[in-house]
Design goal:
Number of strands: 0
Largest sheet: none
Order of helices and strands: HHH
Radius of gyration: 19 Å
Shape: rod-shaped
Number of helices: 3
Structural class: mainly alpha
Strand content: under 5%
Amino acid sequence: MLIGILIPVLINSFTEFGIFGESNYGILFFQIIIFSIAFENRKYLTSFQRIKLYRKRPDLFQK
């Protein structure tokens, strides 16, 4: 995710004034898209998330 956010910032730094230059909202648009993809809510837990949740809250897995 960090690399995905860093790529538009680097491209913008090499081609324009910077992130907060004149009407430079394209970089922020792409960063919002990257954030929305990276932080989407999922219906099912991954195996790593299940293990982490089990270690923190084992009472949720008891029947």
